């Protein structure tokens, strides 16, 4: 089955990004496909390579990059929400790309299920 | 990666349960709704809980220094987005009637709303 | 399976659970995750509501979230506990998904 994921909250501040990641990981392990993860609202902050969490904490941004690299997950950051919050190509972590809101609607159309994580 | 999706029409519901201005969700939700119009899908907007406040007439944001985006709800018709639903219980719990709202909506009680939600293919909540 | 309703808010903090229960069609499934899991613990103010909901709906909770919060031993009888694999299965088996953010 093909899943689309929408994340509305930034990393660390809210559990949404953690829950979404655990969901994606489990889905992939079960043989499903994560069609796209779309980052919206403060969720765009999941994409900044400037993130430096303490060493004993999880690195949420790198975790997404690794998922993209190993499983070809399309990580899309909303351009308008990103610009509002200073997330631009210059500070984007590997595996993420910036695009328009149409990518979210498109993901809703072509995935079998779209799951939203947020506050 | 691009597939031909022409002809695929899904039922999309945008769920608005948050008040405007206090957080950005209402405004950014509206931005997605406007984009969705370009995809020729069967779009419904649901206003429940504090989301009903998004439609309150008379919003004047000058003094808070924020953009008043409430006129956009009136422009939705021009995008062929005409299915706006308000949950009756939520509206009444806030002391509002349809006369207080900036646009024409269909009022559904919770059971009717449950039936509407159950019909949807894609539910987006912000 | 009918729609899957996901609730991630503590019932004592926000009204997401109330609204989900009001607008979920009988026969649907309600999954509690994140702070939402407090609702399915014994003695919580929502206990009665959860028991009432179980008459018409299937009520599930994500155990990793229960465990993280130290609430794993107080779960109301009849609540189905799932891990992330079970979460994925619920999404796959339901005809659509709605998050009560």
Ends apart, CA distance between termini of chain A: 26 Å
- Tell me roughly what share of residues is in helical segments of chain B: 25-40%
Structural class assignment of chain B: alpha/beta
The gyration radius over C-alpha positions of chain B equals 15 Å
User: What is the strand arrangement across the widest sheet of chain A?
Assistant: 4-3-2-1-5
Bin the strand percentage of chain B. 15-25%
For this structure, the CATH topology of chain B is: Hypothetical Protein Ychn, Chain: A
Question: How many E-type strands of chain A?
Answer: 5
CATH fourth-tier homologous superfamily of chain B: DsrEFH-like
User: H/E order of the elements of chain A?
Assistant: EHEHEHEHE
CATH architecture of chain A: 3-Layer(aba) Sandwich
Characteristic key phrases:
heterotrimer; B: 126 residues; Hypothetical Protein Ychn, Chain: A; five-stranded parallel β-sheet; C: 101 residues; alpha/beta; globular
Commentary on this structure:
The complex is a heterotrimer of chains A (119), B (126) and C (101). With 119 residues, chain A is of the alpha/beta class. Chain A has one domain: DsrEFH-like (Hypothetical Protein Ychn, Chain: A, 3-Layer(aba) Sandwich). Chain A has four helices and five strands. In chain A, helix 3 links the parallel strand 3 and strand 4. In chain A, helix 1 packs parallel to helix 2. In chain B, strand 3, helix 3 and strand 4 form a beta-alpha-beta unit. Chain B is α/β, with parallel strands linked by helices and 126 residues long. The two termini of chain B are 27 Å apart. The mean pLDDT of chain B is 95. Chain B has a five-stranded parallel sheet with strand order 4-3-2-1-5. Chain C has one domain: Hypothetical Protein Ychn, Chain: A (3-Layer(aba) Sandwich). In chain C, strand 1, helix 1 and strand 2 form a beta-alpha-beta unit. Chain C has a five-stranded parallel sheet with strand order 4-3-2-1-5. Helix content of chain C is 31%, strand content 19%.
